[in-house]
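Hi there,

I know you've been waiting on this one. I reran it after we fixed the sequence typo, so this is the corrected version. Both the input and the resulting structure follow.
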Amino acid sequence: MYPLMVGILFFLSFSNSKYVFYAASLIFLSFYTITYGYGYDWVNYYRIFNNIDYYDVMPFEPGYYYLMRFFHFYGFNFGALTAAVNCFVGVSVVIYCKKKENKTLLLFCLFSFMGFFMFMEQIRQGLAIAVLLYFLDDLKNKNYKKFYIGVLLAMCFHASSFTALFFPLLNRKISKAKLISFFVISLIVVYGAVIMINYPQYIFIPYLKNKVLSYGGMSGSLDNTLFNKSSLIYLLLLVPALISRKIEDYKDEAGKAIISVFLIFETKLAFFLLRFQYYFFILYVDSIDRFLSTRKKKGWLRVYLSLIVLIISYMPYRYDIYNDSIDNPVTIFSSRQEIENKIIKRCSDLYRHGGDDSSIVTCRYL
């Protein structure tokens, strides 16, 4: 179903008709609301949801935890919770895109950049990003007080969204000297983080240390050579930004897009940093939207961007560990037995591909 969704949104992205956008949105929302069970994280959430009464300490940020408690208290099952959460995320994306110049193209971009990992697999962070989408206009309008409130709300779902606290630093005139300075500083920060990740014994914050160790174990199940080579494709997103940088009216927005692409690429240096790239994806699409509206709907630049985004949408297929879980979901109508069988299959796939079970607790006991 995922490749089919990508294909449909790709072809529809060349139209800016509001009716085409509504059709694309309906397909997008139906897909998200009805299906789930992609990837592996949901296995943990399913277990926690069914045992929520035994948790005296929150296992993660309060937003999703109290959503679980609410649905469990009123007798709803995990499928109902997932449908509600996915619907909120999907509607947030649609509402955001509806306000933009290139509605259908941005819907395709957001789905391709984050559709699998954020909106299907790492749902807490997907919720955080969905919240942030409502506040991006406040960032652009320099209503920082409201924007920071939005960031704090997002952090209730995933702590990594603190990254957005730094977005206002990019919401200003970006000269060539500032671009260079930013690249140098960001490289120093990222390489400092990589050193920290390589020597986790020196991390004194238990929560952070556990996360680093968990991601370190996960990286062993992935082909790092393939990962590094294929990650170069993200640099091709620079082309629209560099072209728009030459036009005075779009110079600052182009600067934000350029910085976003480099930060996306820099997060590829360590698996622990990958969580942060998705915040720069939303900054990227927000920055190039107005410039793209001046280009022909089927001009070479829009076709070029759509093709690059199409390639990126298939990035999850780089890994055998995800291949089996992308096209084999459950639905909100699946029985408990079907869900349990799917969990057994997911754990089997995890072990078969050399995955680490330290983060998927349920698999330790199967």
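Quick highlight: The radius of gyration is 20 Å.

Best,
R. S.
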